[in-house]
Design a protein that fits this description.
The structure is a single chain. By secondary structure, the chain is α/β, with parallel strands linked by helices. It has two domains: about 140 residues, Enolase-like, domain 1, CATH 3.30.390; about 220 residues, Alpha-Beta Barrel (TIM Barrel). The protein has 13 helices and 18 strands. It has a seven-stranded parallel sheet. Strands 4-3-2-17-18 form a five-stranded antiparallel sheet, with helices on both faces.
């Protein structure tokens, strides 16, 4: 059993090493909610991946902070829990707010791994010694700059190139990339930027022999994705539409997609991520782990999750240096020249959190303890 003695909330502000643009807009700095949980002399960290605005999902860092402080953390502090798998039942009265829930739950899984003196990957059921790495490349100022970014990623060994796209930055870009690199594993991610009137346009992308087209239509849709998938030879991958195992089963049964992206924050934590993974595996649907511009804390949780067997496609878990001039863990996440990350086998997450670095970046904080709530 784990007794939760305290939950610490911190907001840090971290500038990205390079601007990152999607169909939602341009990101240059991340406001990030970190949670630190204390239990019987142990401490573990979690990261809320909600953005600054409710654009990717209906959560933002500010809604996550409020819900964590007023609803979720009070359900943890002072409680005795078996481990991370206990969190969904503790949080179930609170509807939604999956990214806030995931930050807390994932930290409790790490505490459980430390208590049992096993690796986090092992506790989750992971069997892979290394994970396969792809890279997500945002919309660039020009095709020339994009080509340079792709060349750098391929030189670094990444096994899959994913291009963010939107109307006006799609077909001609894909064509230029394929002309230069006809054999690379290529995919695209629309982040829900297209509609029914674009079906014929999207169908043209079959010629580029991409691994997948990720979330082309509405963020909450299965039906129209199913209609589109019937028009395509290329596999559709769903991301924003999948919040839990039930969604995964519905999407698979409706033939809305042939691949699933699992983001542990989007589905509410490791417990539900494992359930989605297992549902897909049982039905022969491959999965991969998506990224949300995480710091090293969230990144190492993605590594542990990606060690599960059905994560058979290269994910977006790339090196720290692709996003941060200086990360908040050591060692920083590194990708080998083969495009792989070694799964840590030490106790817990396998990385050290740089507390001094976090303190220097902190702009607000709050501590909740079992006996009382203390402002710091």
């Amino acid at each position: 059993m784990l007794t939760i003695d305290a939950v610490h909330l911190r907001e840090i502000n971290m500038p990205l090493a390079f601007p990152f643009e999607t169909s939602f807009g341009l990101t240059t700095t991340r406001r990030i909610l970190l949670v630190e949980i204390e239990s019987d002399g142990l401490t573990a960290w979690g990261e809320c991946v909600a953005g600054e605005h409710p654009y990717f999902s209906d959560e933002s860092i500010d809604t996550a902070w409020i819900v964590t402080e007023t609803e979720l953390a009070p359900r943890l502090v002072g409680k005795e829990v078996v481990g991370g798998g206990s969190c969904p039942s503790l949080f179930c009265q609170v509807r939604g707010h999956r990214m806030a829930k995931a930050a807390l739950e994932n930290a409790v899984w790490d505490l459980e791994a430390q208590k049992k003196r096993v690796s986090l990957a092992n506790l989750l059921g992971g069997t892979r010694k290394v994970i396969l790495c792809g890279v997500s490349i945002g919309i660039q100022p020009s095709p020339t700059v994009l080509m340079e970014k792709i060349a750098e990623a391929l030189e670094a060994g990444y096994q899959r190139i994913k291009l963010k796209c939107k109307p006006g930055w799609d077909t001609k870009i894909f064509e230029q990339v394929r002309v230069r690199w006809p054999e690379i594993v290529l995919s695209c991610d629309a982040n829900s930027a297209y509609r029914i009137v674009d079906f014929d346009h999207i169908a043209e992308w079959d010629q580029f022999k991409m691994l997948m087209i990720e979330q082309p239509l509405w963020y909450d849709d299965f039906y129209f994705h199913s209609m589109l998938q019937k028009r395509l030879e290329t596999a559709i991958c769903l991301d924003e539409s999948i919040h839990n195992r039930r969604d995964a089963l519905a999407a698979i049964d409706m033939e809305s997609c042939r691949i699933l992206n699992i983001k542990v924050g989007r589905v509410g934590g490791f417990s539900e991520a494992i359930a989605v993974h297992n549902a897909a595996a049982e039905r022969g649907i491959p999965v991969w782990c998506g990224g949300m511009l995480e710091t090293g804390i969230g990144r190492v949780h993605n590594i542990a999750l990606s060690s599960l067997q059905n994560f058979s496609l290269p994910g977006d878990v790339s090196a720290s240096a692709r996003y941060w001039a200086e990360d908040i863990i050591e060692p920083e996440v590194m990708v080998s020249t083969k495009g792989e990350i070694e799964v840590p086998r030490g106790i817990g997450c396998g990385y050290t959190v740089l507390r001094d670095r976090i303190e220097a970046l902190t702009v607000r904080r709050q501590t909740l303890r079992a006996a009382s709530r203390v402002m710091v």
